[in-house]
Structure formats: C-alpha cells, structure tokens
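Researcher: We plan to redesign the surface later, but first we want a full-length starting point. Tokens attached.
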C-alpha cells in the first residue's frame, strides 16, 4: 500500500509525475502491473482490495470475504517461502532473518550529492547544518553494507509491514547513525518515533551487562512514554535489549532498586519522575550516550524547562548524542536548543509548524458558548463517524461536556489528569479498539498519542496556542490516512484566530479573505490566549429550567433552615425548662 506516501510533508503524491520513483520503490514489474490494473479499473484485484481495506480498516470490521482473500494470499506466500527454504531446519528466527536478507535484491544509494539534493526536494526535506549525510530511499538500502542495519531490526521492520520510509525517517536516520545531533521538525503522524528509535537500537546493538542506561528517551506525558515503550519493544524484538519505563508505579516496585536498573539499556520516562529519581540518587545516567526529547518544544518550554535542564546536567557522559523531535518548533526554542547541542543538523519536513495535509480543516462560528452545544448536537444528529476526539480547555469543562453528552445517550468518555491512572489506561485502550466512540479530552491528550483511526477532531474550545492546534488536530489524519478537524469559535475567540488561520492557509485549506485580514497577535494577546479565555459553563439547560431548578433548590434550603431554627429553639427551651426545674428542686431541698 502506498497510502503512506502521502506523508511528503504536505506534498500530495502525484503518481504520474513521480512514475519513475514508483518504479524505483516498487520495482518495474509491480509498477507496470499497477498501470495495467489502472487501465482495467473496473476489475478490482481482490488482493489489492484486501490490502487497501486492511490499511483503512481500523476496527477490523471488513467483510469476511476480503479477509478470506487476505488469508488465501498469506497461505500462498507461506507456501512459496516454504518451498524456497524447505531443506533448512535451523532455528525459526534465523530462517526469518535469512528471508528478510534474501529479499534485499537491489539498493538505491545515492551516487552524487546532486541526486540526494533532488531527492530531498522531491520529498520536501529541508536540511540546515554542516556535512549533512544523504537521506536513504528504501528500507533495503538500510540493510545494505552502506548502513549495515542489524538483520534483526530489518526483520522487525518487515514484520510491521512498513513498505517505505517516511521523509523524516529518510533523513533523520542517516544523521543519527553518523552520531550527529539532530533537531527534526516533521508533521504529526509522520513516523518520528521510529526515526529516532531505529538508529538508537542499531547503535546499542545488544545488552551490555556492566553499564547502566545507555539511551534515555523523555516525553511529556505518561501515556506517550508507554506508547514509545511499546514501539521499542516491537522494533527491538530478538535483540535482547532491555527497556525500562520509569513511572511512579515502577519506582515503588521493591524489585527496581538502583542496582537492578543497571541491567536496563534504555530508559523511557517523563521529566518529573526522572528528576525525582535523580535527586533521590535512584538512577545513574553517567553511561547515557543517546538522549532524545520527544515533543521537544514542549519539554523546552516553561513548565518543563527546569526539569529538562536538570536531566541534561545529570547525563554526565563525555559524548552524548542529543536528538530533538516535534511537529512544532518556535524560533525561540530552536535558539535555546542550539545552546545545548553540538554542531546540530536541523531538518524540516514540508513547512515548519504546519498541519498534516491529509486533514480537512474547518472553522465554525458558533456565536456564543451556548451555540457550541447546539452545533455539536446538530453534528451528532447528522451522524458522526467514530472514533471522534473532542478537545476542551480545562478539566472542569471536560466534566461538564461529558455530563451533557452522556445524557444525550452518546457512547462517550472523558479523560483528564483528575482521573486515576488505571482509568486513563483503560479509556485509552477502549478508545483504541473502538469501544468508546467519542472521547472528550484536555490538553493531556493533544500530543503524540497515536490513534490511527480517529476520523474527526473537534476543538470545542479554541486551542490556546498555534502549536496546540497543530498537535490536537494531528490526532487524526495519521500515517497517510484522511481525517477531519472542526474548530468552533465564538465572537470572543475572533481576535485570537490569526495563527490558526495561517496554519490552515499554509496547509492549502480554503480560508475566507476576511479571516486573512485579521491582525496578527501581539505579545499580550498571546499571553492572554495561553492563560485561556474565561468561558461560560457548559450547560444547555434552558433559562426557565435553570430558574425553576434554582427556585426548587432555594425552597429546599429554606425549609431545611426553618427546621434547623425550630430544632434549635426547641432545644434551647428544653434546656431553660430543665434549668428552672433544677433551680426549684434546689430551693425545695
Ligand atoms: N514507514 C512507515 N510506514 C508506515 N507507517 C509508519 C511508518 N513509520 C511509522 N509508521 C506508523 O505511523 C504512525 C504515526 O507514527 P508516530 O506516532 O511515530 O508519528 P509522529 O510523527 O511521532 O506523530 P506526533 O507528532 O503526533 O507524535 C504510527 O502508527 C506508526 O506505526
């Protein structure tokens, strides 16, 4: 499948124009086959169809006939493979590795700098820095002597069925393999995680018993840490490299003493947890030679900067490769990053700070806060295609919106930092498998999380920064899939919209002329926007109902008060009566 080719950093893949390249990637025979299939468009090859549906079939609900076709094809492939390897009875993994190597028939390494330059231009890869290594074209190239990728890693790549590398992978991997520091800015959902993991796994190669962590990966949220750990496990299968995820739970684990942690090769964690561990002398980072900041701009922004700084200081090794990845980088963060990096190479895929172009973006005027609820209900009534993610600006508003939607009978959940870790894990798992259709979230979920099948992102509350907009909408339209994003705005939001309008225009969306004339935000406006606009509560109860409810509530309160006063009065009278009686008794005595 070449859906993923769409991820050319904002480039639409014109197959006619790049016919020559398709031939390079797929081999002439396959390209010719595809051409003839196109001519006979009415006849759909069931295998092609099954592959296609499998790619877009997030919930694996496709018709069984298609799955049967796929099964038949797999059986045939297995049979073919068995025929060629039939008389070898060595260990299964070795066979697999051999099979993977056997498939490497030709490589497409660049012969000249000009070739590499043209390739970069074609894939919208921009590089800044000295002695920039050439990009690579295919995963087969990585396995060739020029890169010498560990056969086990190559096999794992083939197992996950990544057909072609994405632009950020094409350029970041060779740079990291050369040991250079890198700052990579590439669209959301474009495979940045694999871009930094593969070179690290290649360099670490196998476990080293005597040293402590050799690679450290930092991400801003616990959920993202877990997701990265999952990808490391898939990609490093068979290498015996050991991964440790540092969370509050693992820190409390009595088996995870500082000594036992020495046995791990890779540490993945959030900054806060790690800084605590550093202070408590629970971790030794002196052997770290790869330091990755995923969502680097967030980790170098106020709120995390101090902790990130402490982590850099604790990595005391003499030679540390630093790699920074994100879909957004402000100039300020880039300047800051340069001060902690050594001769870095900067990569930008497509335009800097742009949204992925597989997302259809829309701005919807709702007038008031109440108008948002009406717009949302109308959308639901028209019919939405789950899964859908809805972003709001605070925990309180997330709870309020949840109460509105749950009473509408929608299959909805809400996730924010007030929920327990178990609840959060459970919700994410359920959303991934399609058991939850609509998920209301705060900024916690805006970055990094990879839900391949999200069809629609609704910004119920206007995002507080342009970066937040790019990351939020980037939860859809991932890995070459199509997605939609709707952003509600009220009269109050109008003055803050220019940044988002610019992103939309840059991504090729239709934006009305008057929006382009909105003024850019000044410093004060940006600050105000970051703090969040004060908004009315989310409550769609009518004014009359609210008045009636309030009246009822007041009556109940008044009644309670009357009863309380009466009880107190009675108590007082009783006390006085008793006191009088006691006095009388005393006199009589
Ligand atoms: N070469 C590839 N071919 C096909 N799919 C890929 C490839 N590389 C990565 N993917 C898949 O693409 C999806 C998005 O990747 P990833 O989460 O790394 O994106 P990202 O660029 O880090 O996004 P974000 O900026 O939102 O964090 C994942 O499901 C991943 O498995």
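Model: Full-length starting sequence:
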């Amino acid at each position: 499948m070449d859906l993923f080719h769409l991820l050319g950093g904002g480039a639409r893949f014109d197959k006619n124009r790049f016919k020559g390249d398709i031939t390079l990637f797929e081999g002439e025979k396959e390209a010719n086959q595809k051409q003839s299939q196109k001519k006979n468009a009415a006849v759909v090859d069931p295998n092609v169809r099954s592959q296609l549906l499998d790619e877009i079939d997030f919930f694996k609900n496709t018709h069984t006939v298609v799955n049967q076709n796929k099964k038949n094809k797999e059986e045939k492939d297995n049979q073919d493979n068995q025929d060629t390897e039939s008389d070898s009875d060595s260990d299964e993994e070795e066979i697999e590795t051999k099979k993977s190597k056997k498939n490497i028939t030709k490589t497409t390494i660049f012969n000249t700098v000009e070739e590499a330059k043209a390739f970069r231009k074609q894939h919208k890869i921009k590089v800044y820095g000295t002695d920039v290594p050439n990009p690579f074209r295919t995963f087969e190239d990585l396995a060739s002597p020029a890169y010498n990728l560990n056969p086990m890693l190559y096999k794992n790549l083939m197992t996950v069925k990544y057909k072609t590398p994405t632009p950020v992978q094409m350029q970041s991997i060779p740079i990291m393999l050369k040991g250079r520091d890198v700052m990579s800015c590439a669209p959301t959902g474009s495979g940045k995680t694999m871009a930094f993991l593969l070179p690290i796994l290649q360099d670490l190669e196998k476990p080293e018993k005597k040293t402590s962590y050799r690679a450290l990966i930092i991400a801003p949220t616990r959920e993202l840490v877990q997701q990265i750990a999952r990808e490391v496990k898939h990609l490093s299968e068979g290498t015996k490299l050991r991964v440790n995820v540092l969370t509050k739970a693992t820190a409390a684990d009595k088996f995870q003493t500082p000594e036992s942690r020495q046995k791990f090769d890779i540490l993945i964690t959030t900054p806060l947890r790690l800084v605590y561990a550093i202070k408590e002398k629970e971790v030794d980072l002196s052997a770290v030679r790869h330091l990755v900041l995923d969502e680097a701009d967030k980790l170098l922004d106020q709120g995390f900067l101090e902790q990130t700084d402490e982590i850099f200081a604790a990595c005391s090794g003499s030679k540390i490769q630093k790699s920074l990845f994100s879909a957004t980088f402000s100039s300020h963060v880039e300047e800051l990053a340069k001060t902690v990096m050594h001769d870095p190479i900067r990569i930008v895929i497509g335009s800097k700070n742009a949204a992925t172009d597989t997302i259809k973006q829309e701005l919807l005027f709702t007038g008031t806060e109440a108008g948002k609820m009406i717009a949302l209900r109308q959308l639901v009534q028209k019919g939405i295609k789950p899964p859908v993610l809805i972003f709001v600006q605070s925990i309180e508003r997330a709870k309020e919106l949840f109460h509105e939607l749950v009473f509408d009978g929608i299959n909805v959940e809400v996730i924010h930092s007030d929920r327990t870790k178990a609840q959060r894990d459970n919700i994410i798992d359920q959303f991934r498998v399609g058991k939850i259709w609509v998920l209301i979230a705060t900024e916690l979920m805006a970055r990094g999380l990879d839900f391949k099948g999200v069809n629609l992102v609704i910004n119920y509350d206007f995002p507080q920064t342009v970066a937040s907009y790019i990351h939020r909408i980037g939860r859809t339209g991932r890995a070459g899939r199509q997605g939609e994003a709707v952003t509600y705005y009220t009269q109050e939001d109008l003055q803050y919209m220019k940044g988002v309008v610019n992103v939309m225009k840059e991504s090729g969306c239709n934006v009305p002329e008057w929006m382009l004339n909105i003024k850019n935000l000044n410093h004060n406006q940006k600050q105000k926007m970051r703090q969040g606009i004060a908004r009315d509560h989310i409550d769609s109860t009518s004014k009359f109902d609210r008045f009636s409810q309030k009246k009822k509530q007041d009556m109940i309160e008044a009644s309670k008060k009357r009863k309380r006063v009466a009880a107190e009065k009675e108590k007082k009278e009783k006390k006085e009566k008793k006191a009088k009686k006691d006095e009388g008794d005393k006199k009589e005595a």
